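QA checklist item 7 of 12: single-chain prediction sanity check.
[x] sequence parsed
[x] length recorded as 228
[x] structure emitted
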Amino acid sequence: MTSIFWNCQQEKIISETEFEQAVFYEIFPSILDSIYDDRRKSPPPPPPSPEFFDKYGSIDEAIEAYKKTDVYIQAIKDYKRKKDSLNRDTASIYLAISDSITRFDREDMYELVKHFKNQNIVLDSKNIELDNGFKIDLTRLKANNKKFKFKYQSEFPKGREFWRTKYDFYIGAKIGFSRILFDKNKSYGVLNAGFGMGILNGSGFRVFIRKNDQGKWIIDKIIDTWIS
């Protein structure tokens, strides 16, 4: 009887894990579209000199005045040329993906219930107990942007050396994910994503997902959780 019980429990754990992975790989392209930002296409920054702002009564007035300067007009022309060139470029953009999914935070339980409060969702305590992550299978990752290619973060130097090292290809970002916490009926969920574009240049997101009327998983809302 003990053996039978144990096997049943193992089958349930495998089923839960496989379900979560299937949802993760399904929703991944949508999340990537929502959080990815090509830093090469960032518009020109405001004037770096504080003295420029001192000449005007407000920041808005200073920005409007700066937009009329020859420096800004030329910067915009250069920016548009570069952006157009990048849009036509067919070179691959590599994304360094965390090797494994990490466990979710306790706070995610409260945020899931609060965000979908009108649905009166109930959490599944057995799902919460399954706090181990899983290794990401790069071959199962899909992207709507055909330029994207994926590599494990473990293939790169650690820490700041990741960004200081020169590569033969363009690194667009480092991205990591937490496990998905579902409600008991497996209709709603939440996970976290971290997106880094350089040293002290990154963001964190809490992603709320739900199953639509067609049975497809879609993003309900994304909330910023941290920035560096």
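[x] summary fact logged: Residues 2-35 form the longest helix (34 residues).
[ ] second reviewer sign-off
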